[in-house]
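Take a minute with the sequence and fold tokens given here and flag any structure token that looks odd. Thanks in advance.
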Amino acid sequence: MRPSVLLTLTLTTNVAVSATTHDVLKSPMLFMDLNDVATSPAPWGKLLPRANTMTEQPQFSPPPCNWTGGDTVFAAFEVLGSPGTYEIFVAVGRPGEPYRQPISTIPTGSFDEAGVKINRYTSTDLRSWDGPVTVLFLPDGSGSSTVSSKEHRDYVRQHTHYPVDDSFFHPEDGSIWTAKSMDRNPATGEYLMFASYGSSAHTFTANKPKKENTFLPTTGSLKKAVFKDHDDCNVFFQQSTNTWVDMQIMFELYSAVGLNASKVKKYCDNVSNDTRRVVSVRTSSDGTNWTQDWGCADAHQKDEHCSTFNTAAMVTPCDCPDDPPDLEFYRIRAFTLGASGRVAGHALDYVPSPHAVVYSPGYGRQPLWYCSEGCCHGPHSYEEWWIGPSSGNVANMSEWRRSYKDTHAVSHDIWLMAQPVTTTTQHVWVDSGKVFALDLYRLAGIYSPGNGEFSTLQFSMPSTADALWVNADVRWQGGNYVGGADEGRQAYLMVALTRVTTSADGTEVVEQVPGYEPENCIITNTTGLQIPLLWNTTAAPPPTGTTVQLRLYFRDAYVYAIGASKK
């Protein structure tokens, strides 16, 4: 028997995988859909990208909050400088999704009930929690909004299918704050939080917030918003450009993209029936001064309703049979998948419902606090997985991929406000009342029901400091229930190492590395987040710096990622 050789590569974390450059495999390489596999050599067989739905984790629990009353987890991180310690931020005091307590019914003289508290909790095991520490308090009535302007009211009344009375609109001062999203710059420790007040967006900043009242408004005043044309902001810090990115929900006119609104949005909707919610971006270098929506092509964006659009800077429904005709995107939460550097997101889908149904007892958001006639705000649909640009730059809107339109990211009645935290084995979402998770790097992978094969992107052969592994599920299913039956024992995975060279005429040539053929690396009946790749050979691996690829051959198995770690 020839001895096994363990192929080794160098790994550094928190660097995005590039699909266009030949480099050392610096971080786990994920295969979330067929865009993540090499086109040369060509894939072969029936390869099916498949996403997973996160599952509830009963061994974990959120902190003791009033979840049924509307307390909301809207941000989660691993504490900077404290590996294995996690922090979550909970908005307390405004049950605004789906209910809001009318101001007139709130008792006076109570600090706790007269505004929104942003509470920080910490945990090392996601079961027991320290806190809360109130890092920000936002008193009711302390902001400033223009949502109830006459122009806005007239527009909504003109473009809706149902009577709109004044109770539909916020009062001029907005009255109630809502926490929207939060991210941080891990290099500096700066945290940036979005909160809305009416239709106005406000940002607040703090450095490593651990003490009370550490968040401060970036404008210096609760009365001054950073912009007044949107209220649903989804912030992400782009490390590669040192930029804050707001994945902004904006409104697109159906007529601007050649659609007949009366045939698309059949039922009334509170954002008007000539308009749908889509996703664009706006950016800021300091969290205070923001560009307008990149998807708005107007010379100056005066409010949330633009007249011309840059569709290359938007993610919209496909306007094809793969989507409901009246689909809209209500929110998007982008996040990084641990050390892979890859970006994904879960988007909250939305479609309106018939007017008569919307205000029937108990349906959707009923009872609605802002409109006695229901106002046609249909229920949310479900959270959908989005695959981010391979470059890791979330602002490249044309590179976002909706590969799994029909896969629920989480169970049907859950909508998530926070990004996940990543442990050594899982991506974990602490939700408002429950905890959910995916196994590490298993948001989506490639499955082959028959014999299939694909090659990884090219990378440079490094030194022998680290050992190569594959994240895959190659388990045999079921048992031998009928004598001799073998259907459940068909799964296998083989891996080959190939060398990539360039001929004199500039043609790429892919050659098998002797000793590292697929039949020398066979994996069956196992699953693992880091299955070691062992070749049964005495041959030496290619020299450091050689451009190489891995070719994976598999059947009835899921392949999620490859990577390297210290021996």
